[in-house]
Design brief:
By secondary structure, the chain is mainly α. The chain folds into two domains: 1-36; 37-135, no CATH class. It has six helices and five strands, in the order H-H-E-E-H-E-E-H-E-H-H. It has helices spanning 3-11, 15-36, 54-69, 84-95, 105-117, 120-132; strands at 38-40, 50-51, 74-75, 80-82, 102-103. The strands form two sheets. The protein has a three-stranded mixed sheet with strand order 1-4-3. Strands 2-5 form a two-stranded parallel ribbon. It is elongated. The chain starts with a helix and ends in a 5-residue tail after the last helix. The relative contact order is 0.13. It binds calcium ion. Calcium ion (CA) is lined by residues 96, 98, 100, 102-104, 107.
Length: 137
């Protein structure tokens, strides 16, 4: 009866208590950070869009992820963040410069380049401020 716990203790000396606790703390910290941001339109589906090529779709996805991670989907006036799909829907309208419903390779690569150059951030900021100006009372 007493041999099993001893064996378990010998196999996992002291560690199993600390490691889960660290993971729990890390999870709680993450959860705490995430809860501060309200996700807007969490259940909206992605709008249908056609890419000229899989490479174009990849370029767009890369740029979209980068923008999302750096906070381009944050809508400061309402202290929220667009859901990934809502952000996708917003961005495809911007990427599709000629509005033909097809994201050409050129449009996708331009979007990726703008993302990497950070130049577009001012445009985005202008757009957001345009929406947010009503917020002043
Ligand atoms: Ca287009």
């Amino acid at each position: 009866m007493t041999r099993l716990p001893t064996l378990v203790r010998r196999l996992h000396p002291a560690r199993p208590m600390t490691r889960p606790m660290w993971m729990l703390l890390a999870l709680l910290a993450l959860a705490g950070c995430k809860q501060k941001v309200r996700i807007l339109n969490p259940n909206v589906p992605r709008n249908p869009i056609v890419f000229e090529s899989p490479e174009g779709a990849d370029a767009f996805d890369t740029a979209l992820d980068e923008r999302y991670d750096r906070g381009d989907a944050d809508i400061k006036p309402v202290k929220g963040r667009l859901s990934k799909n809502a952000f996708f829907n917003q961005q495809i309208e911007k990427v599709d410069e000629n509005g033909d419903g097809i994201i050409s390779d050129l449009e996708a690569s331009r979007y990726l380049k703008r993302t990497e150059d950070d130049d577009d951030e001012e445009d985005d900021e202008a757009l957001k401020n345009g929406n947010g100006q009503n917020g002043h009372h």
